[in-house]
Amino acid sequence: MAHAVRRPAPAAPKPRVQTVAAAVAAVFLLLGVLGFVPGVTTGYDDLAFAGHHSGAKLLGVFQVSVLHNLLHLIFGLVGLVLARRLGGARLYLTVGGAVYLALWLYGFAVSRDAPANIVPVNGADSWLHLGLGLGMLAVGLLLSNDAGTGGRLDVPLDRG
User: Fold this and answer.
1) Which of 6, 55, 83, 112 is 20 to 30 Å from 150 by CA-CA measure?
2) How many Cα atoms within 13 Å fall on the side-chain side of residue 39?
């Protein structure tokens, strides 16, 4: 007796917001690693664990420290885990965007030489944080596979 071979249905493509969240997380992982690479990080001999006195700069522009690089690594790992689910991807991008906007404000509120500047930020870091915050928020809140199709974005799945 012959048995019919069932093939699994092809998997639906991942929602774009998950793909973007995974890509953003991968970039943070890469930046966290590159922050420990001499040559990519100038002034590597001046890399401090934390604080404004770290003289190391990623790509010669963005002030970094060991703590700063570790935070990028952790943020990237958390993003890869959260990007596995749609809700997690949106959460990662929106909350992460809000955190980066807060870091942008922190960069302007805290003096560069202040003891509160434990994760060193310079002017370039602050403007990068603004761009990251706005970009991550926009993608997390607005990117939808139904965008531009004429379909309603607020229809629950069980009623669509």
Assistant:
1) 83
2) 1
φ, ψ (nearest 5 deg) of residue 20? -65, -40
Distance (Å) of CA 133 to CA 3, 10, 105: 55, 35, 11
CA 68 – CA 59 distance, rounded (Å): 14
- Predicted confidence (pLDDT) per residue in 53-77, tens digit: 788 888 988 888 899 899 999 999 9
**Angstrom distance (rounded) from CA 145 to CA 111:** 43
Distant-in-sequence, close-in-space partners of 38: CB < 8 Å, separation ≥ 6: 44
Residue whose structure tokens are 């690479």: 37
CA distance 43 to 54: 9
Order of strands, edge to edge, in the sheet holding 41-42?
Answer: 41-42, 57-58, 62-63
Task: Return the structure tokens found at 149.
Answer: 């199709």
According to DSSP, the β-strands at 57-58 and 62-63 are antiparallel
Tokens of 19: 């793909």
Assigned token pair, 148: 């531009």
Q: What are phi and psi of 58, to 5 degrees?
A: -70, 130
